[in-house]
Amino acid sequence: MEGSFTLTVLIITALIAGVLAQVVANYFRVPSIVFLLIFGLGLGRSGLKLIEPSYLDSGLEVIVSLSVALILFEGGFNLQLQNLGKVSSTIRNLTTIGALISLVGGGIAAYYLSEFPWPIAFLYASLVVVTGPTVINPILKSVNLDQRLSTILEGEGVLIDAVGAILAVVVLDVVLNNNATVFEITQSLILRLGIGVIIGVIGGLLLSGFLRRSQFLAEDVKSSVVLAAVLGFFAIAQSIQSESGLMTAVLMGIVVRAKAIPDERLLLKFNRQLTILAVSVVFILLSANLSISSILVLGWGGVLTVLAMMLIVRPLNILVSTWNSGLNWRQKLFLAWCAPRGIVAASVASLFALILTEKGVNGGASIKALVFLTIAMTVFLQGLTASWVAKRLCLTNQDFEGVVIVGCSPLGLLVAKLLQNAGQDVSMIDTSAESCKVAIAQNIPAVVSNAMDIKTLAAGGLDHAGTFIALTVNPDINLAIAQRVTEEFSPPKVIAVYTKPQDGSTTDQLEIQQAFGCRVAIKAWNQHLTQNQTQLGEITLSENIENIDLQLAQFNSLLIADNLLPIVLMRQQKLQIVTAESIWEAGDRIIYLLYTPKLLSSSSNAITIDVSSELFLGEINTEIGADNTTITTEPKIGATKEAKSLEPQDFLSMAREILKNPE
């Protein structure tokens, strides 16, 4: 009874410590493994001795292996084949040629710098080939890299974990069996990978097929079915060939996600929560089982070995693996820097230390210590500086340029042309082939497809765009597309024409800005543009307080009456979409549409409304098929030659060819 109570307290303490480490890491916005390592060492045998994993005996190995299987399944489930397709060659190189470079380079470094025997040196190198989603994903969330770079790091982290673990087992077999031939080594590696892939694909197909046909199952039961299936097929693969189950878990995750099963988001959420819990408990137990004195014994040789892995081996790996990949030097440099090691390296190293000790082979404790030193140094040096490095290299989402617009309506085309003439890279998406032809005729790239499809959004350039705008005539569709974009691509700005619910519940729309205002009758404005009942105008807000009040009084009266629609504004030499969250500032230059029913004919002259000589209007002829679409405006009073590129007529002329049907 006393023994079971001790184990209960041990597990509960590890759980509380792990969750607390996650909370602290979230508060400070750093990878959770940082505080998991600190808490584990502080509560383990080298600290307060509140957690003694040795009490678990072989149970620790069981907990670790099952947890790693769940972690790898979640990592594979997060990967998307359409994203992997763009960088498949790079990921393939990183998990094959790159793994070999890391193995050889790491072995040489450990032999010469840490003075390990060759077998033990290469065993260490095989353990640190991996990176891992448990450390990569938190970094990606905090840094907000472009889709391509994120996919490479995430794909490498998931796949290299399985490949690296199998490679480590093969190297361990060589260490324990000195008589193994090259053929036997290669056969063992291929056999484990092959069995893992085959069972993983079969398991993924069976599981996804069952979930698609099991509409009678409750949502909670589906999550339990997924959990049981993953562990079941993992056990089958392990029983056929040891360590092949890790590849099975990865492939099951990839296949199930690729089959687009029902309630996909709920399963993603469940798997993510389960993974966080597993990582919290396992890493606390593994780090608590580590002796700090064993790390100190390594001396400077151990530190130099890790630095060689970080500063020589990894850059060489990236240089070779990304050859002819199309990545620029900034992206390659970030990939070379960002390679923290995680839970798979720690778990396999702990397991190998026990096996080597049981077999009477010296070096098990040293390997474990050097692996944990590698984890600590890479996480602290690379993980904590990843955001700073990305910003210095201009790789964060805030540095992205380009706009993707869904909806080739008259208003969408007007916005696209304004942004394009201001120097932005603009592309459009619409289900109407005719509407896309109009956009293409205006030299705006357009994709004919459904914007709810991830492949379509990627083809439109959303994986490297800074702004997404949903401007279809249906506000509900706009919101649904914008939510999809936020979840899958997370661009810096997501803007859509939609109406927030009256009850004030905005949980799902926190990152989605309302285009042009809180309530926009987008269908009506498209009709106004088509019927040539609009004027395009500009107002520059005066620096004088009295003047700005007078300007805004007339401006807001038209806005409230739904006779005026602000579209874009120029602030600090940057053109941006007006949103409901926009706050007017002195010096802002606002371009807007004014509804003028039966006021203008196609031959009308330009009209200037005098509001401190700052409000300008010009006619837009948007008649489909018109031979001469013209815009005329009054020149701005007091304009200087130096500001020629920012003259009102230059802005207004951006709409000159919009909706023109070329001959």
In short:
58% of the residues lie in helices and 8% in strands. It contains 25 helices and eleven strands.
Over all CA atoms, what is the radius of gyration?
30 Å
CATH topology of the largest domain: Na+/H+ antiporter like fold
CATH top level class name of the largest domain: Mainly Alpha
Structural class: alpha/beta
**E-strand count:** 11
The chain-level mean pLDDT equals 79
Distance between the termini: 89 Å
Runs in which pLDDT lies below 50 for 5 or more consecutive residues are 599-663
Please identify, by name, the CATH architecture of the largest domain. Answer: Up-down Bundle
Main sheet summary: 6 strands, parallel
Numbering strands along the chain, what is their spatial order in the largest sheet? 3-2-1-4-5-6
**What is the count of structural domains?**
2
Q: Based on Cα principal axes, name the global outline.
A: elongated
Helices, by number, come to 25
Helix content: 55-70%
Strand content: 5-15%
